[in-house]
Amino acid sequence: MTRRLAGSLLALVLVATACSDDGSETSENTSTGTETSVDSPPVPTTASTDSTDSTVDADDLAVIPGEAFPDARCEANRAAGSISYLTGFDFAATASIIDVIVANDRNYYSELCLDVDVAPSFSTANYPLVAANDAQFSSSGSFSELATFAATNEADLVALAVEGHVAIDGLMVKPEIESLEAIADTTIGVKGKLPPSIAAMLAEIGLVEGTDFDTLLLEGFDPLAHWEVEGVSSVPGWKSNEPGTLERAGVPFTLYDPADFGIPGSFGLIYTNRSFLEDHPTAAEDFMRATMRGLADAIADPAGAAATAVELINGGGNPNFLSPEGEMFRWETDARLITATTPAGSHPGVPDPAGLAAEIAAYDAVGVYGDDGAPPVDGRFDADLVAGLYDADGTVIWPDG
After folding, report:
1. What is the pLDDT of residue 60?
2. d(Cα 46, Cα 158) in Å, to the nearest integer?
3. What integer pLDDT is reported at residue 285 of this predicted model?
4. HSE-up of 274 (CA within 13 Å, CB side)?
5. Which pLDDT does position 8 carry in this prediction?
6. What is the residue-wise DSSP string for 178-199?
């Protein structure tokens, strides 16, 4: 247990044990169609120093491999009430979504006395919800995206896991464009805006948006439809998605990867708000404990994990027209990148402070953040929480079932 948690955990136990479990009701989990037990929100109480609970030692909250999950920690987790996790893009088989899906499917959260609701959403829509604590956890596409929203909106968001330590974006270029330099004087089709890693890659060879090339806003998410847009020379997309779609359709293209140009990046972040993290430290820690176990399972069995995601996608009507082949390609690619980019001596999901700082600095150097300048890095991630969930051999610390 980290020293940061120890002081807060004892206070949490005092409050949790003062709260009754009466009033528990059954509700439908909209993400899975199953019924889950939802505890009524606990009535706030002030722990008295005279309480017999003051004798509880912080060590009684420790999760020890092979031993039963501590009763006091279970009570603290139940006191957090219903925990909402919003996905970043439907139930896609991608980093920071699939690990939650697998953990939920295997009841890892409930084993740790957590009541978790997993619901499909979209990355950029979730930041204000988590910031307001209307949801407690969500998935972010990159650290730059998270830090920028936090700075712009004065939102105290904290990344707890960073699963991919490389930019997930790539630039797919049509065959008639014979080099990256030949992007000059052409138009790049974009979804929303040019990804920072692509902008930085192009700036490395002296190409700047609005001066050396233009961008065109594209509609929807269909890579094949985007490829056919007249006048578009290239299209950015996730290396785990669009390239697979084009390859399966037999469409020729050249993929330029920012990583090959030394451009740093990240993907697959799970974040919360600081209020929830401080008010419910054991629940935040154990949500991530279960999620990291789900991540390990998903990496070990990519096909099974992707199939779990596809089942949920289809159960929700598949509004984004995702395919089993596409989701398998997506997760195989993500899993490979997570494994390949986890720093030596670290473990999957543990944030890399130096890498996150380098990402922000590289994008700032090419003007990605405009007149506002680079968002602050300090305070936007917790480098210790997920690191403390692993045993020395790299296994997620788990109690005896």
Report:
1. 86
2. 27
3. 98
4. 10
5. 42
6. -SGGGGTTSEEEESSS--HHHH
Predicted confidence at residue 221, as pLDDT, reads 87
Which structure tokens are listed for 144? 């730059």
Instruction: With CA atoms as reference, report the closest residue to 53 among 78, 1, 18.
Output: 18
For the record, the structure tokens of 222 come out as 């269909």
pTM of the model as a whole = 0.85
Q: What angle do CA 295, 263, 191 make, to 5 degrees?
A: 75
Q: What pLDDT shows up at residue 12?
A: 37
How far apart CA 32 and CA 85 sit, in angstroms, is 13
Report how far residue 220's alpha carbon sits from residue 237's, in angstroms, rounded to the nearest whole number.
Answer: 13
Cα separation, 5 vs 76, whole angstroms:
13
Residues 6+ apart with CB under 8 A from 57: 10
CA quadruple 363, 368, 370, 375: dihedral sign: negative
Q: Give yes or no for a contact between 308 and 348, defined as CB atoms under 8 angstroms apart.
A: no
46, 108 Cβ separation under 8 angstroms: no
Spans in the chain with pLDDT lower than 50: 1-56
Contact 289, 267 (CB under 8 A): no
- Amino acid 13: pLDDT: 35
Tell me what pLDDT residue 88 has.
Answer: 96
Contacts of 387 (CB under 8 A, 6+ apart): 346, 347, 350
pLDDT at 2: 40
- For the chain, how big is the Rg over CA atoms in Å? 22
Give the residue carrying structure tokens 């001066």: 211
